[in-house]
Design goal:
The protein has twelve helices and six strands. It is an alpha/beta fold and about 350 residues long. Among the domains are: about 30 residues; about 120 residues, no CATH class. Helix 3 packs antiparallel against helix 4 and helix 4 packs antiparallel against helix 5. The chain is globular and about 65 Å long. The two termini are about 35 Å apart.
């Protein structure tokens, strides 16, 4: 376990495997892509650096539901509240908590995005110096966008965490929302509590997911094991060296796509200007909100002429975009276009 359980160790192991694979199968001259989902987006950023060092130049990277900067939600930082707000708006829209809501959800989300980047960001920047009148105005505007009462928003100092939002939006119905997908809802044992007791979007899919995985292992791969399959890997994280919270992988994509800050001197996109990135996002995802990904990729520091290397996809789904059949179809079409354009 010590050989692979660590950031450096993981990148080394995957780099060796990929090089071995393309060597054995004589695919050195074939187009090469990485596809990372969630934690895998961090890994993909790191691998783009380590592979580049070994002479493996990638054609493209797909980032699905990205988490590229673990410092964004450190204590005292307000950026997370700003990047969460458009996702709150999308979820409030879905649950009919928006009065006189417009017909187009994406137009409504764009309205929330502009408010978050403008008046809301300015209000948070003001900190404790904001006037009561301005705080009242911002709370009213937020309420119209995210469905919570102005009173609750003001009591939270205009700063609503995703956890509180999940508990508060449907409190009048004694329901909580999912973290991976805010469309999921479920009853909570403690109607007066501040935090949700579980994640309905996790419990709603885990049984089907685990059953399908076992079906694939046993019937397709003919692999049977007495070991328990843990879908969230309990106890594994303690084996990883260093603090992943200090690794900013958006910097990694710019500075060689490496997940470790000490490798910032390298620069994958500048060294490989043909490298394309496709960032796919579910608009109801509270685990990795899409605006956070926009912010992170916008701060890579790339030259203006290379910013077009990054393209985007937004889908009416959550963290696992493919769980929504219609979103899956659109995602597949977008991937096909991306792979063709990046070859």
């Amino acid at each position: 376990m010590k050989d692979v359980a660590g950031v450096d160790q993981d990148l080394t192991a995957f780099t060796k495997f990929i090089i071995r694979y393309i060597t054995v199968n004589h695919r050195w001259n074939s187009p090469k892509f990485l596809f990372g989902e969630s934690y895998g987006t961090t890994r993909s950023a790191g691998l783009s650096a380590t592979l580049n060092e070994e002479g493996v130049q990638l054609n493209g990277i797909v980032l699905l539901s990205s988490i590229l900067n673990y410092n964004a939600r450190s204590a005292g930082l307000d950026n997370g509240y700003i990047t969460d707000l458009p996702t709150f708006a999308a979820i409030a829209y879905y649950h009919n908590k928006i009065p006189n809501k417009p017909a187009d959800i994406l137009a409504f989300v764009e309205q929330a995005r502009q408010f978050a980047r403008g008046p809301y960001a300015e209000a948070l920047y003001a900190g404790n110096s904001i006037s009561d009148a301005d705080a009242d105005k911002i709370a009213e505007q937020m309420s119209a966008l995210i469905g919570l009462s102005p009173k609750f928003i003001k009591e939270a100092n205009l700063r609503i965490s995703a956890t509180r939002f999940r508990k508060e939006l449907l409190r009048d119905q004694n329901k909580i929302l999912g973290r991976y997908d805010g469309r999921f809802e479920g009853p909570d044992a403690d109607a007066a509590g501040e935090f949700p007791g579980y994640d309905p979007s996790d419990t709603g899919i885990s049984g089907a997911y685990i059953a399908s995985f076992h079906e694939y292992l046993e019937k397709e791969l003919k692999f049977v094991s007495p070991e328990t399959y843990n879908n969230s890997g309990p106890g594994l994280n303690q084996n990883w060296t260093g603090s992943i919270a200090e690794r900013a992988a958006a910097e990694a994509l710019r500075a060689a796509g490496d997940a470790l800050r000490r490798w910032r001197s390298r620069d994958t996109i500048r060294k490989n200007p043909h490298l394309k990135v496709f960032a796919a996002n579910g608009i109801f995802d509270l685990a990795t909100p899409f605006t956070a990904t926009e912010w992170e990729l916008a701060h890579m520091g790339t030259e203006a002429k290379m910013r077009g290397n990054v393209t985007w996809g937004y889908y009416p789904s959550g963290h696992m975009v493919y769980l929504n059949v219609e979103a899956l179809k659109s995602f597949r079409q977008d991937l096909s276009k991306f792979y063709d354009s990046a070859k």
